[in-house]
């Protein structure tokens, strides 16, 4: 019964503050609108506390971090924690550089996140304080597969327990868990990796889902992952001859725009472990 | 007779300098090209004076302001004023944070703007020096409706008189006025609010219209608002099953690309008060 | 025989580091994915050395330079040179401002570039240390035409010789040369100039082509230009009634996504001088 989570987003229209990268920010804004949320972006340290105060949640994405936005992340994050707002971390490229790894680790230490979402390499980096991320994509050796699923589920639960948050590891198979329960999700299509920013988009959507479903955060986080993957499946069915990753990008956002609770309920493909 | 305003843009191909946010900047650039203008973006303080000098107009949008771009806004704005260039302000999120409110108020005080365009909450904030903007969207209590239209028109004329500029308040009903005349415009569709940046796009398009129609600025500003709203209507007619806000975003830009003076003249839906 | 160059990109999946402008960065990322590469963006000085170290090439684009990203460009460029990585410069707007001209000239002096790609005004500015660029578009008086082609080819070879790099001058006719050989390319469509960032996209794609074809850099650079122009032709054939520059933008990226070596081989329209 994940379907109602998206209906709750449309009913609540949560305002989500994003401190995010300039690569995928437009798609992040449009997919937040598509799912029923309302985006606002601000990274200037002198602006972020006011902005986050009027929002329901804050999504911190370190995809193109700089000294100014890093200060903004910490100031906004602390304010969000003070106010009891939803706080999510997307540690883009953690493991790919010392600055990204250190910043992600520091953010995870100094702030209380409701959820942390990344690929397996990024989350492993956070768990270990180091990593071998291949740029912003997951290291292939780290991929979650049917073969190592048991181990990966245990890793997710353990990470969630240690960090006291929901851990969402997305890839070919998505895992969304807290310390005791893990959703194993098989929505989505491999072609989504050929679009920049599907991960960033999911993080923002997940923040909106968490804000609008505060009593069932784990379910809401899993529903966001299902919704994004299902949008990828529905969008693929609408692809026409000659379409490529640009058309696919648009069609995925459109699929979220047109998705309701019934469609999500029927299309969500998951098991709970 | 607003139609010729867009033909003049295509004939003049005005170069428009944008100091704008990183969320919607790509759409701003593409819609400027679509309407016949030519965009250039620069916010580095040491770059902006040169850049604005070769342009016909400058559009300042505070959507993701930071200390560096704020300095760029003032330096570029002063240069544009010196050179007698068109200068437009889009006070995105004024009222949502102290920094945004203060910056918008200071810009309006220290620079001479040809036009200021925002939603009603943002313009009220500028008028009052404070506000209750709901993020970057208008506060619902502030919406211009058929019921409070008389009062809203008076507000727009008064604001325009006090600030010595064209005031453009956009929403379900758009108002574009100077101290004595106000265009009441009923183009557009509510679904445009589900796309990020239609306001930012309009501000840039309006700047191009002002540059290309220097003898009839109020008419040009109104024509830009009609053109954007009409594009929203035409684009909506081209929507196909499964399309959502991403497709709509593209179709609106495309509708501007294909619009000529005749189409604008026939489609513009306004009265003058 | 340029066709295999794109196949090599798909086989190698080169990671390309981009320090680029925030206007067209999303399209740059998506077209890199479309051609078979993998993008990563980073401009923070304390991040760029690590990031460029894990990549195969670095594309420096000064479209919205600022003091921070400028420092990032020099630090990343030096590291790329140290590591023998592919390094490309796109001097966007050189000639339009002192800061852009000086930065482009300094980058060309202090770093060893494998290729420099710009419009004729930008490349002339680099050659002369000054210019009359019309914003980010080429000065019309500078356009490469059938009439001045001989002279333009000589200019390109001379520039390439002096700078010790591949020079790519793109416009209605594209020229890609080293000191002794120049590809004269007649792919593309004039409507591509109505989309923001086709030049930025080409620079990133060219970087990926160079990384994946290290033994034949000139051919690879020419193949990238042919691929981009051919994509513009193929995309134009897919345009439908009502489509404009937004649809065209998406269709061009999609055409690259669907292009293979055979299609490129057959569609490439060039002569060697």
What's the number of domains of chain A?
1
- The neighbouring-strand order within the major sheet of chain A is 2-1-3-4-5-6-7-8-9
Most extensive interface:
A-B, 33 and 34 residues
Rounded average pLDDT of chain A: 95
Q: Tally of extended strands of chain A?
A: 9
Shape of chain A: globular
- Give the terminus-to-terminus CA distance of chain A: 16 Å
How many helical elements of chain A?
11
CATH class placement of chain A: Alpha Beta
Q: Please describe the biggest sheet of chain A, giving its number of strands, its sense, and whether it closes into a barrel.
A: 9 strands, mixed
Radius of gyration of chain A: 17 Å
Regarding quaternary structure, what we see is: homotrimer
Helix content of chain A: 40-55%
CATH H-level superfamily of chain A? Ribokinase
**Elements of chain A, N to C (H/E):** HEHEHEHEHEHHEEEHHHHE
What fold name stands as the CATH topology of chain A?
UDP-N-acetylmuramoyl-L-alanine:D-glutamate ligase
Task: Describe this protein's structure.
Three copies of one chain form a homotrimer. With 273 residues, chain A is of the alpha/beta class. In chain A, strands 2-1-3-4-5-6-7-8-9 form a nine-stranded mixed β-sheet, sandwiched between helices. The longest helix of chain A has 21 residues, at 217-237. Chain A is built from eleven helices and nine strands.
């Amino acid at each position: 019964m994940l379907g109602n989570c998206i209906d709750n987003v449309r009913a609540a229209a949560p305002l989500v503050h994003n401190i995010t990268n300039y690569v995928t920010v437009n798609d992040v804004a449009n997919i937040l609108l598509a799912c029923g949320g309302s985006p606002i972006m601000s990274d200037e340290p002198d602006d972020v506390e006011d902005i986050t105060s009027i929002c329901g949640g804050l999504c911190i994405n370190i995809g193109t971090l700089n000294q100014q936005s890093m200060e903004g992340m910490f100031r906004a994050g602390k304010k969000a924690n003070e106010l009891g707002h939803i706080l999510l971390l997307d540690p883009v490229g953690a493991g790919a550089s010392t600055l990204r790894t250190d910043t992600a680790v520091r953010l995870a230490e100094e702030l209380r996140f409701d959820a942390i979402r990344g690929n397996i390499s990024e989350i492993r980096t956070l768990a270990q304080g180091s990593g071998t991320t291949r740029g912003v994509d997951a290291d292939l050796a780290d991929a979650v597969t049917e073969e190592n699923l048991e181990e990966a589920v245990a890793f997710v639960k353990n990470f969630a327990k240690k960090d006291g948050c929901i851990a969402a590891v997305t890839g070919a198979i998505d895992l969304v868990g807290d310390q005791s329960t893990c959703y194993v999700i098989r929505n989505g299509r491999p072609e989504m990796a050929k679009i920049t920013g599907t991960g960033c988009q999911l993080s923002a959507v997940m923040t909106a889902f968490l804000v609008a479903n505060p009593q069932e955060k784990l379910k809401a986080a899993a529903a966001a992952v299902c919704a994004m993957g299902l949008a990828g499946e529905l969008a693929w069915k609408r692809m026409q001859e000659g379409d490529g990753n640009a058309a696919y990008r648009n069609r995925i956002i459109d699929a979220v725009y047109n998705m309701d609770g019934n469609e999500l309920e029927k299309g969500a493909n998951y098991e709970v472990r």
